[in-house]
Amino acid sequence: MNSEVPSDFNPNRFLGSLFDVAKAVLITPKTFFSTMARQGPLIHPVLFLITSVVVHTLLARPFYQMPGLVYQNLFMGITLPFLTAAIVFLLLTRLLNSSGTYEATFRVNAYAAAVGLVSWIPVIGVFLELYRLYIIVVGLRAVYAIKTTRAIIAIFLTFIIYTALFRMLFNVTGGQFMNLPG
Q1: pTM of the entire structure?
Q2: SS3 sequence, 13-41?
Q3: Domain residue spans in the chain?
Q4: pLDDT (tens digit, 9 = 90+) per residue, 19-37?
Q5: Spatial distance between the Cα atoms of 137 and 102, rounded to a whole number of angstroms
Q6: HSE of 19, CA atoms in CB hemisphere, 13 A
């Protein structure tokens, strides 16, 4: 077993790399994000994200009350990190005058999906999802070389934007978008 912290997910060592990256993100996020590749094949973090979301969904499936939640979880778990990265990137670079790239921001969000590998566990899963926010703050600090307060502000403003978008979508559709299949 390699004791070095990986800098990126390696699809050629799929399960071993998944375990190594998840362990590094969950246990030593500061070290992982300080050594994380800032660029390279985007398919690596995308595959890590998709795998983490699928594993989470399969393990959480017995706890879903409505079958439609499976599809919603898969869709949102895979698509929202792309949108979240865009929002955070724009907030940090345009509003907070920080220097960074969308790709590095996406990588932080994709690798923070490691939390999903364990957050399916009832009760503690909620706390682990809060830990995901901490991991994202640590990642943003590393890739943007910013203070914690800027990362927290960007995440807080992202929540406000999502809340406004959700509210608008609810008002426009009359809540119909919440009707899940199954």
Answers
A1: 0.89
A2: HHHHHHHHHHHHHHHCHHHHHHHCCCCCC
A3: 11-178
A4: 999 999 999 999 999 999 9
A5: 15
A6: 6
